[in-house]
Each structure stands twice: as C-alpha cells, then as structure tokens.
C-alpha cells in the first residue's frame, strides 16, 4: 500500500501516519526525517543537502527528490510506504510523479487532511520538544510528565 498524506502543518499527518504504519506495517517517509537520516549516514545526497542547510538555505527540489529516490529504493519500502507531507509544491509533485514512473511505483491512496485554521494554530503553538531527548509533546493533548522535559 503506497499512501500520500497531505495537509497543513498541525493537521495530524504524523498522528494518522502512526495508525497507518501499524495497520499496513510500512514505513513513514517524512522529508525532514529522511534529510536528517541521509546527512547522518553521509550519503551523497545527504552531504549535498547539508551544504545548503549549513548556509541557512532551502534544500533544492532536485536534492530532495534524490533523497526520496534513495529512500524509496530501500528494502522496507518494497511492500509500501507513507509519504508524510511530501510533495509540498507543484514542481515537487511533478518531479515525484516522474520519479515514481521511472521506479515503476504508483500510489494507492492520496489522503488530504482538512482542518480549520484555528485548530491548526492551537496544535502548532502547543507543541513542545524535550531539550534532552528530542521527544515531542503537546501542552494540552499530550503533556509531558515533567514540565519542559520528557
């Protein structure tokens, strides 16, 4: 099952992805996560992305698509995957479509999460990250056990 999740930041893509991961036993592919992973692994695309990030610039679409290509080629994606919040632009969508054709991959589902702006603002402004371990929580929906840390 190949799934694409769309929605504004705070719409619940990551939350819904967790349910889909459990149901279909497929990996979640988030560009932020795979960028960090590619950089940590020292891949060619990861090192290219790191140069832009170190300069405070956006990583170009061609590099992002290269990293997506590498990720989709990994073994754990052979039975499916969840694209979480990617693509974000029409050029990224066009590049992804071309890449998937070349890789002979198609999408089974595209899910758009539509959430009112006022709810999204509350979800985003309530997010917190533990400075020690990086765990995320929300002050209202998923509070930490100790204020400010996990």
From TrEMBL:
InterPro entries: Adenyl_kin_sub, Adenylat/UMP-CMP_kin, Adenylat_kinase_CS, Adenylate_kinase_lid-dom, P-loop_NTPase. It holds the Pfam family ADK. The keyword Transmembrane does not apply. Keywords: Kinase, Nucleotide-binding, Transferase. Residues 127-150 form the Adenylate kinase active site lid domain. The keyword Methyltransferase does not apply. One of its GO terms (molecular function) is ATP binding. PROSITE patterns: ADENYLATE_KINASE. Gene3D superfamilies: P-loop containing nucleotide triphosphate hydrolases. Belongs to the adenylate kinase family. PANTHER family: NUCLEOTIDE KINASE. This is Adenylate kinase.
């Amino acid at each position: 099952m190949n799934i694409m999740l769309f929605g504004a930041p705070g719409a619940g893509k990551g939350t819904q992805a967790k349910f889909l991961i459990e149901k279909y036993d497929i990996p979640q592919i988030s560009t932020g996560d795979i960028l960090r992973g590619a950089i940590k692994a020292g891949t060619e695309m990861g090192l290219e992305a790191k140069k832009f990030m170190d300069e405070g610039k956006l990583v170009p679409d061609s590099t992002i698509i290269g990293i997506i290509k590498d990720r989709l080629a990994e073994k754990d994606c052979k039975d499916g995957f969840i694209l979480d919040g990617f693509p974000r632009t029409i050029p990224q969508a066009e590049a992804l479509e071309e890449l998937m054709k070349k890789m002979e991959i198609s999408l089974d589902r595209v899910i758009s999460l539509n959430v009112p702006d006022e709810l999204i603002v509350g979800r985003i402004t309530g997010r917190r990250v533990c400075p020690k371990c990086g765990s995320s929580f929300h002050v209202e929906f998923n509070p930490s056990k100790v204020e400010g840390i996990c």
